Amino acid sequence: MIRRRFIVLIGAALAGCAGPRRPAPAGSGVQAPQAWRTPTNAGTSTLRLDWWKSFGDATLNALVDEAMSHNDDIALAAVNVEEARAQLAYAQAQRMPNVQFGADGGRERNVNPGFGVPEEQAAGEALIQASYDLDLFGRLKASSAAARASLLATEDARQTVRLGVAATVATSYFTLLSLDAQLAIVRQTLQVRRDELHIEQHRFDAGYSTALDLTRAQAEVESTVQRLPGLELGMARAEDSLSLLLGRVPGAVARPRRFEQLTLPEIPVALPSVVLRSRPDIAAAEARLAATDHTLDAARAAFLPDIRLSAMGGFVGSTLVDASPVSVWSIGGSILAPLLDAGRLRSQEDVATARRDEAAFAYRKTVMQAFREVEDNLAATAKYREQYESLSRTRDILQRAFSLASSRYREGYATYLDQLDAQRNLLSAELSLVQSRQDRFDAAVSLIQALGGGWAPDTQRQAARDG
Fold it and tell me: Cα–Cα distance between 158 and 245 in angstroms, integer?
């Protein structure tokens, strides 16, 4: 009892040297808003973890599944998880007894012994040594807790990478479908203008058209041809980028469906307080904050005594000893406490405190960034829908205008320039409509990603907890 009190008194004295534990900075807290600025369809439904299947495209489903299995960034994230799991196992092993076995032996000859008679002997020993750190003040426990939190953060980071890869695959696929649609429109327009050029050539040869109209028709054909290389180059680059995401060498990507066959899904939007628990990057930032907090505890525990128990037992033998082998054993303990370290422990505590504060502000930044991303994409989905509806009406109007201008031109009531203007406006509206459709799909994917992509911490982190 006296010895225990003595140890406690020493620990209390050394703990006083550490000083009070500094709290997290006051400005690192964050308050979730009550609702989003943009009206939403918030309800009881939630996002699916395989959210890309809600677009109803089998090709997209296959591409995302392939990326989940072969993407290099996902593979690197998985390796990071295994490294963090190994570090946790090492930290936990530090709290367990350490048992070692040792043996040595040999034969020696002493030609100048004490009594003038040469001696030769064979000697050896076999020992088992055990040591155990009592960890009375929780240094190893805090280190183990920090390693576990780091494992959870790494697992959440892997889920963030997986979500990002799936979102990028989806937007890359929609870009390809958009380019296909734009390319089809330009090629169709090119065919129409070539037919018109053929007609203008016959009219000019027959004297019913002017050279100005003929050159205008020729120029329109060439201006349409000039659009093709840019679209084809963009398509090749998009295919190469998507191939890289899939873990393939650059090449073509099959896509049997057309862009207009896809439909946008309804996206359930959770409240801001729910989003805080639905994004893996926020969970990772929170886990990193917890890890730095435990590391700070370990740094403060280093000011306190380190108490270890040790034991040894075995046999020692020699051919010169009649009673060989002889059993030997020992048991004891040690107490190591810092006295003068020139500020090393204090500096380590200051470093741990600064890293904890840095993690606290990083967590706040991640949360605020998440709120901004949701707000931006909620606004984007709403405004892009309005834009698409207006462009659809504009395209229909310009389609009728082109039909009227063509009829009036064939009947001689309008000039060829009127028809060209109507056709140019229609082409621009059709291309803008396709681009607006792509913007809507991209905004939907970005909104799903901002909401966490259906990630659920209770299920997705279970493997990391079990590890």
Answer: 16
Contact 359, 285 (CB under 8 A): yes
Residue 30 lies in a domain: no
Does some domain include residue 130?
A: yes
Phi-psi region of 381 (alpha: psi -120 to 50; beta: other; left: phi over 0): alpha
Backbone angles phi, psi at 116, to 5 degrees: 80, 5
Residue 335: domain span: 36-106+120-466
Model-level pTM? 0.84
Q: Express each pLDDT in 184-219 by its tens digit.
A: 999 999 998 898 888 888 888 888 878 888 888 899
Q: For residues 407 and 37, what is the distance between their CA atoms, to the nearest angstrom?
A: 49
Domain annotation covers residue 2: no
The b-or-e profile of 107-134 (16+ CB within 10 A means b, else e) is: eeeeeeeeeeeeeeeebbbebeeeebbe
Q: Say which CATH number the domain at 46 has.
A: 1.20.1600.10
Is residue 347 a part of any domain in this protein? yes
The count of residues in the chain is 467
Q: Is 364 exposed, middle or buried (0-12, 13-18, 19+ CB in 10 A)?
A: middle
Read off the DSSP letter of residue 106: E
Cα 389 to Cα 10, 57, 396: the distances in Å are 77, 23, 11
Report how many domains make up the chain. 1
